[in-house]
Amino acid sequence: EDKVVQSPLSLVVHEGDTVTLNCSYEVTNFRSLLWYKQEKKAPTFLFMLTSSGIEKKSGRLSSILDKKELFSILNITATQTGDSAVYLCAVCPYNQGGKLIFGQGTELSVKP
Amino acid sequence: NAGVTQTPKFQVLKTGQSMTLQCAQDMNHNSMYWYRQDPGMGLRLIYYSASEGTTDKGEVPNGYNVSRLNKREFSLRLESAAPSQTSVYFCASDWGTGLLYEQYFGPGTRLTVT
């Protein structure tokens, strides 16, 4: 059975800290891995990682994909209170209609 | 562009009542999806429509039906609501299979079944 597991489930840090969120997966016919940020409403897209794009960076956020060890990490440097949210990892397999398999999410709280 | 819109935003039902959640997208996307989100469980796929005229079951389809009314609209129906269907429901859309684009999500519908 396809599965995506995130860790930790929750995390509390102070502004300026660096955090690393983890996502491991067991998915048949992996196509892509996506990271979303959810702030009490709809998830918003952060990154997509594929076989041809295993590292992405946008400002203070960066992500890598290790296809051999079947995991991805999301790094946030110099955290701000606005980074407080649930971060969702999802994997999209081939030949399954484009559906996403989500992990449980990591709830990040950044204290001033 | 409004993106993905959902109605209603909130709904309270009694056990056994029926209702339809509406979803529409204005991005000309081919594929549309319905997810539910429960505490500690991430999002789980209920049904999806890879293209206009087709629908398929996802991970948790029991108790739900869907209709892809046209390319823009994808509705989710609860025929006889149960307390276990209390959840937040998200609709999403993307360009479709074989294409590496992200899914866009609507604002969600918070449903409580008493």
Radius of gyration of chain A: 14 Å
Most extensive interface:
A-B, 25 and 26 residues
For the report, how would you describe the main beta sheet of chain A?
A: 6 strands, mixed
Pattern of helices and strands of chain A: EEEEEEEEEEE
Number of DSSP strand runs of chain B? 11
- What helical percentage do the residues of chain A reach? under 10%
Ends apart, CA distance between termini of chain A: 41 Å
The total strand number of chain A stands at 11
How many H/I helical runs of chain B? Answer: 0
Helix content of chain B: under 10%
What is the mean predicted local confidence, pLDDT of chain B?
Answer: 93
Largest sheet data of chain B: 7 strands, mixed
Number of helical segments of chain A?
A: 0
Q: What low-confidence regions of chain A span 5 or more consecutive residues with pLDDT below 50?
A: none
From the spread of the alpha carbons, the general shape of chain A counts as globular
Characterize the overall form of chain B: globular
Average pLDDT of chain A:
92
Derived from helix and strand composition plus strand pairing, the structural class of chain B reads mainly beta
Q: What's the multimeric state?
A: heterodimer
SS-based class of chain A: mainly beta
